[in-house]
Automatic annotation (TrEMBL):
It holds the Pfam family ABC_membrane. Keywords: ATP-binding, Membrane, Nucleotide-binding, Transmembrane, Transmembrane helix. Residues 355-581 form the ABC transporter domain. Residues 21-290 form the ABC transmembrane type-1 domain. This is ABC transporter ATP-binding protein. The keyword Transmembrane helix applies.
Amino acid sequence: MLRDLAKIRDILTPAERRKAAWMLLLVVLMALAETLGVLSIMPFLSVLGRPAVIHENPFLQAAYAHWHFRDERGFILALGLASIAIVVASSLFKTVTLHALNRFVHMERHSISARLLSRYLRQPYEFFLTRNSSILGKNLLSEVDQLLFELIQPLSQLFAQGAIVLAMALLIFLYDPATAIGIVLVLGLLYGAIYGLVRKRLARIGLERQAANGRRYQAASEALSGIKDVKITHSAAAYQAQFEKASRLFSRHMATNDTLSQSPLYLVEATGYSMLIVVALVLLLRSNDIAHVLPALGLYGFAAYRMLPAAQVMYRGFAKLRVSSAALESIHRDLALPDEPAASGDALLAPQREIRLQGIRYAYPSAPDKPVFDGFDLAIPANASIGIAGRSGAGKSTLMDLLLGLLRPEAGTLSVDGVAVDAGNVAAWQRAIGYVPQHIFLADASVAENIAFGVPRDRIDMQAVERAARAAQIHDFVANELPNGYATDVGDRGIRLSGGQRQRVGIARALYRDPPVLFLDEATSALDAQTEEALNEAIRSLSGSKTIVVIAHKEASLRGCQEVVNIGVQSIDSLHGTTEAQ
Ligand SMILES: Nc1ncnc2c1ncn2[C@@H]1O[C@H](COP(=O)(O)OP(=O)(O)OP(=O)(O)O)[C@@H](O)[C@H]1O
């Protein structure tokens, strides 16, 4: 429990920690206000039943004298009004506090998920090679909710109700210490025993719930993003079954969790009220005077009425903490990921002489013993156009990712004009590059927004968009055939465009900023021969003023390059030696 509290503390920012402390105080005050509201009716009721109490009770007597009441009716009226005032004030306080609490919890959901997304987005590219994107999405959306509504909220209730139990126990203690200790002991033992019985099961449910939630997200996201393959292979039923299995398990665990954290109430209620009857009988047997027993019983009855549900909420807090600690653990771990500095400024590391890879060794994290490159060298003169050829799987895309600074070599350096590219200047280097990947990602936005990718809509330079589109051989299509020209929406991942059109939008994107370096990875593979030739011609016209690196399987695509580097001549495992482009 203490470890979990420390984790919650870590997750919050210092300002949120202060706010959480205030909230906790408010929650406790709210619980006490609630008790006070109910408690304030007691003197009114007892005076109403027997006005003589006014003169017997020292407090009521003092109040009666202090405010110079002349008759009992007036005092009872005042007592009634005072009770109404307390109940109304306590309700107002509770309403305001409730809003503050709701706001805190919901804003925490926003704050934690926003910080988590920012942390994920700042991770190096390699991080995403080992983590499943739907699981990351699940953490951001579903696990943060689990943490807040199934752990932090019940936990704050645990503290609030703890205050009530304490206040009530104190009240009874003042009246009758032995009974107070007895009640706390019985309640503590009862809940302690139940918790001891179910705690292992709760922890297991917590872990399984989290795993099933992940599988649920993964099945839904894979089926929907791969809908074409799902349709054509008729694998919808398999995905449906996969989703349902995980979803059913997830829901079953949520139900068991709710039951296990709620059900002891009935058992404890039965025990509590049985105890009340036993206490009444014992008191009656001891004193034989029912009038003497009744006030004591009234107090115990009231205490039971407030304490039993409060103890139940406390137990629920412990149970939820147990189930949700898996969610807490994963969010705590991911928020502690190294915080890479976000790229800022607009410096440009543009090559004047050469781009050089030297002594590069790189192995993917999932295959650390099988380096794709080991001792690899490559020099690319500035403003030259270099082709990279090689058989499938030889490492062409890996080489491009290394050149892009997306993958960091285990050994060796990437340098631009002798300046080593590192975490400090990689953003400046990437700003100098226009990159067309093998698989182009289009956002569900307009053609113009996709070309000026990442630029806010009102800051898009439409002239630059058109210039880039002309160079990418897509302007005529956009201007003449799309209903709204550059404002036409391309649909989810560009589904309303053909493969070749998507590819040309991707090329226009790389050209939008008119970068000094252009990297093209199979950029023309989806184009017909005529369009490809026109595009190659356009790219050729850029050569001499830009450094261009082209990866292509087809020799025709590399024809315009001044030099072709073949990296497929050696086996992947032993790609040593020098491959130098002069
Ligand atoms: N994320 C990854 N984790 C582990 N191995 C990978 C990963 N990506 C690629 N590889 C492996 O690295 C090697 C080089 O892959 P790469 O994609 O660079 O080849 P390529 O030459 O671009 O192939 P193609 O022409 O088919 O696109 C391959 O053996 C591939 O299986």
